[in-house]
């Protein structure tokens, strides 16, 4: 059960910030986890009684759980924002999360596929030995062609597709919409899926969601992850795949082929350019090619 402060914060996130239900849930979960930690470590009295020492102990606990730095950063950011809301509304006097600094870390490059690896995945996706191959091919094409998040693809509706202009309207995080172009292969595979397999699967269903499971129901993010990993197993590639790797691949390949950072930012739906700048890495092939082309002593 939410406290009065949590309920007011919930209403603020929904009505004023207009965050999506998933984002609101994530923020409230971060707050609830902090309260549970306090309860298990001396007890929680009021939000006003939380001190910087409590915050440091909690931060140390997060590190001991070997969470990803991005996860820890998000949790602390959530709590900092919550306390700022309470300070603004005079529920508490100070924000104990205001000056929390995370440990320094090495930057890790996002995982992505090389172009030859994407070709290997497409080769498997287009093999007609799977009854749902048309859906799987269209799904892989669209994830790669648009760089969309898995939740954006899972909730994609037919009405958001414009085949004449080859544009898709994507409903992004924070209720922010963006138009993203898609190419010939994505358009072709999507048309084939929508005109053949999907009508069969949804014969007894009434909804506008593009991608469906074998029962004709809207596919879930977990379902998409499962499909991609099945394609991975059948390919010549090793390891596991997560949908965000295709988003990373989309951005990486655009930049490697000359797209500017601002364009990639718009296509990905990033609010801040700094978020997009993690994609300034280049593939090994591009790195070697540029080195051989431009370094004066790289060639005889």
Automatic annotation (TrEMBL):
Domain Core-binding (CB): 1-87
The protein's name in its UniProt record: Tyrosine recombinase XerC
Predominant localisation class: cytoplasm
Keyword DNA-binding attributed: yes
Active-site feature positions: 149, 173, 244, 247, 270, 279 (o-(3'-phospho-dna)-tyrosine intermediate)
Compartments it resides in: Cytoplasm
Alphabetical UniProt keywords: Cell cycle, Cell division, Chromosome partition, Cytoplasm, DNA integration, DNA recombination, DNA-binding
GO molecular function: DNA binding; tyrosine-based site-specific recombinase activity
Presence of keyword Cytoplasm: yes
Family under the similarity heading: Belongs to the 'phage' integrase family. XerC subfamily.
Record's subunit section: Forms a cyclic heterotetrameric complex composed of two molecules of XerC and two molecules of XerD.
UniProt domain Tyr recombinase: residue ranges: 108-292
Organism per entry: Leuconostoc carnosum (strain JB16)
